[in-house]
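Example 4.3 (complexes with small molecules)
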Amino acid sequence: MKKIGVLTSGGDSQGMNSAIRSIVRTGIAHGYEMIGIKRGFNGLMEKDFMALETKDVADILYRGGTFLQSARSKEFRKEEGQVKAANNLREAGIEYLVVIGGDGSYRGAAKLNERDIKTYGLPGTIDNDIPLTDYTIGFDTTLNVVTEAIGNLRDTMSSHDRVSVIEVMGRDRGDIALHAGIASGVDAILIPEIPGDIHKISEKLKDGFERGKTHSIVIVAEGVDKAEKIAHLIKEQSGLDTRATVLGHIQRGGTPSAFDRVFTSRMGHKVIKLMEEGIHGVALGMEKNEITYHSFEEIFQAKNVVKANLYEIFEDLV
Ligand code: F6P
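Answer. The structure with 6-O-phosphono-beta-D-fructofuranose bound is encoded below.
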């Protein structure tokens, strides 16, 4: 029986468990033997392998995190680490490997594909920063978590005539801030892709309060600056009572949204189909509601498109 290995790598994201479940159950249904690899590429180098049966992935569909656990491996970035990992896979008879993770994990997966391990990537990151897919795993759930948190902050801010500056994740990308900002009807969005002007924002917030507003919300992507610093500048320039909140790792938790569960179930199914079609060295994603795939190289070469259009929409809404 042919063996398929699956691992989760990099920062975890809600929906990784659902992806593992889909890969394992579809793989078994199509006659493959399934192997879970613990703690990402670290587990690959330490041969931390476990056989997975249908029952082993029961009750994980709706759980955040990843039951295989995840890590960022320094050793695997070096060539010796990659040779060791490929040898361990061959020794265990694992012919196919599915890596669920972000850009760094894809680079590792591509290296193994060059070493004749048939490798596949699934976009597991809340940041939505992988090109050639409209969404990444966990992004939708994170937006819901952030939107709910902003709602809570709005309640207390409006009781005290305050401005709330909220810092969200996204590494060097602003997708979480932009989407959650629009979903929450915030007053200003600061993202790395589009320079913002704190002076203009402060003036606008001041005008709002003069017109009778009781609260204002500013969302800032972590790639721009610290919320504390932005809040200090706004307070200084506007004179408004301004507080900073860093949402932090709360954004990476919680039960995956229905969208993330269905999205990952579709990709898990498709990856097994690709194995049967003899296609490998590719990463999957969703474009225009279709599950699509591209070679790792294509993804590395592709430009990460700035969601400028969405920003334009936001500017007309505030
Ligand atoms: O890439 C996912 C992410 O959550 C980023 O948004 C964030 O910058 C980073 O990981 C945090 O990493 P860690 O969990 O190692 O602190």
